[in-house]
Fold this protein.
Amino acid sequence: MKKLLSAMWRTFRRPATSISLGVLCLGGFVAGIIFWGGFNTALEATNTEEFCISCHNKPENDLVYTELQQTVHWSNHSGVRATCPDCHVPHNWTDKIARKVQASKEVFAWFAGSISTVEKFEDRRLVLAQHEWERLSANGSLECKNCHSYASMNWDQMSDTARIQMEQAAERDQSCIDCHKGIAHKLPEGMESSGGMIGELVQQSHSTRYSVGESYYSVRHLNIYEDANLTTEGGLLNPATKITVIAEQGNAIQFNIEGWRKTKGFGRVINEDFGLNIPSAALTKEAAANDDIIQVFEQKEDDLTGLGWERVTATLWAEKDSFLSSPDALWAKADESYVTNCSICHTQPAPAHFSTNAWPGMFNGMLSFVNLDADSEALVLKYLQKHSSDFSDHH
C-alpha cells in the first residue's frame, strides 16, 4: 500500500511539460466547478419572470403578461403567485434543458420579428397555444401538478358536480390541460369557453314549469338523489337527458329515466338506447344495485360486441333546476358551439358523417384543440351522437 501511494504521489508530481499533473487535475477540477456554477447561474437567470418579461412586456407586445395579471394565478386569497417559468419550464433538470434548447427557436423567432406586434402575435396565438397544450398533454400537465396534486385535493370542499368530475379525472390521472385551457391567458379568437352557452340555457330553464307526467331535458350535469330530501346521493345526470316527472315535493321532483345498461360490471351507466353509448346518467354503485330504484324489463345480447344489455327504468329525485321542456334550444346551442369551435382548424364533418358509437373517439381527438367546459363538452357530444348516421333518417 505504501509503494502504491508513493507511486501515485510521484505520478501527480511528475511534470507535464512545465506543470505537474496534480496541478493540472486540481486546476481542471476548480475550473469545472466554476464552469458548472456559471452555467447553472446563467440557466437560472433565464428561468426568472424578469427574464421572460424582458421580451413579453415590451410596449408593442405586453399581452401575455398583462393577461396573467388578471387571473387567479397572479392574485388570490392565499397569496401564492405562479410566475412564467412555474408553468412554462419543467422543474426537473433534464426536461428543463430540453425545453431551453427548444426555446432557442422561439428566441430566434422573436428577434426575427415574427411576433413583434400585437397584430402579429394574435395571428400566431392559436399556433403558439397549441404547441404549449400539446407539450402539457404529452407530459400529463407536469408543471401544473408540481403545485396541484390530486392526492392533496379535499373533495368535500368542492361542489358536488366539480367533485364527481375531478374524482373521475384523478382515477385516470388526467392531464389538467384537457379541461383547463385559457386559465392564465386569453384564448385564441373563436375559442372562448362555451360556459356562456350553458349559462344562457340555465337562464332559460328558470321559466320552466313542472307537471306530473310531462317530459323534460337536462341542461347540464345535475346531481340526482335517492330520496325526496335530496340527502342520499344517487349519481349524476348527463346534459340533454330526457326525464319524465312522476311526483313533486317542494323544490324537488321525482322522475324516471328509461334506457339500457350493460350487464357486465355494476351497471352504473344508463345509456339512451340498446347498443348505443349515449350516456343518460351515471349512478352510484349503491343506487345501481337498489331494486327500489332500478326496474329491469328485458335482456338482450349485442351481436356486434357480444355484451349483454338490459332495459331499465331508474326512479330518482332532483332539484327543480336546469331542465327545459324541449331539446330544441339545447341542440341549437350545441350546433352553434360545434360549428364555431371545430371550424378553427378545419372544416368540421357533418354530425351524420359518423355513427353514434364512433363519435366519442372522433370528438375526444378534437378536444385538445378547443376549450369546452365539462357541461358544454357533454352537450355537444350528445348532440353529435343524436344527429349521427344512426339517427339521420329521423332528423
Q: What stands out?
A: The chain has four domains: 2-45, 49-178, 206-324, 328-394. The radius of gyration is 29 Å. DSSP finds 14 helices and twelve strands in the chain.
